[in-house]
Amino acid sequence: MKIALMDAECRVRQALAVLGIWLEVQRNDNETRQLIASVQTLLTGVPESIDQAENELTEFTALRLREGNE
């Protein structure tokens, strides 16, 4: 299944939000808290990278369209 970059960015942000809530409710289980924090760390910066990739693709597409009209 393929999804648009913007949708992927939203899903990662949603996953980070769910992980944040889950981390808050896991008060007595340090092992689970460590696993949740590890996943959060792995996802850190991913939404921003996706956003940057989307912007670069948009710029590239616009450039190609301009070159085609010259």
Question: Would you kindly provide a brief summary of this structure?
Answer:
The chain has 70 residues and is mainly alpha-helical. The model has no long low-confidence stretch (mean pLDDT 94). The protein has one domain (5-68).
Which class do the helix and strand fractions yield? mainly alpha
- Mean pLDDT rating: 94
User: Major β-sheet, in short?
Assistant: none
Task: Tally the beta strands.
Answer: 0
Give the overall form.
rod-shaped
- How far the N terminus sits from the C terminus, by CA atoms, comes to 37 Å
How much of the sequence is in beta strands?
under 5%
Any idea what the radius of gyration is? Answer: 18 Å
Flag low-confidence runs: none
The secondary-structure element order is HHH
Helix percentage: over 70%
Number of domains: 1
What is the number of helices?
A: 3
What is the strand and helix layout of this fold?
Blueprint: H1 5-25, H2 30-43, H3 46-68
Account of the 3D structure:
The chain has 70 residues and is mostly helical. The protein has helices at 5-25, 30-43, 46-68. Helix 1 (5-25) packs antiparallel against helix 2 and helix 1 runs antiparallel to helix 3 (46-68). The chain starts with a helix and ends with a helix. The relative contact order is 0.13. The model has no long low-confidence stretch (mean pLDDT 94).
Keywords:
mainly alpha, 3 helices, 0% strand, rod-shaped
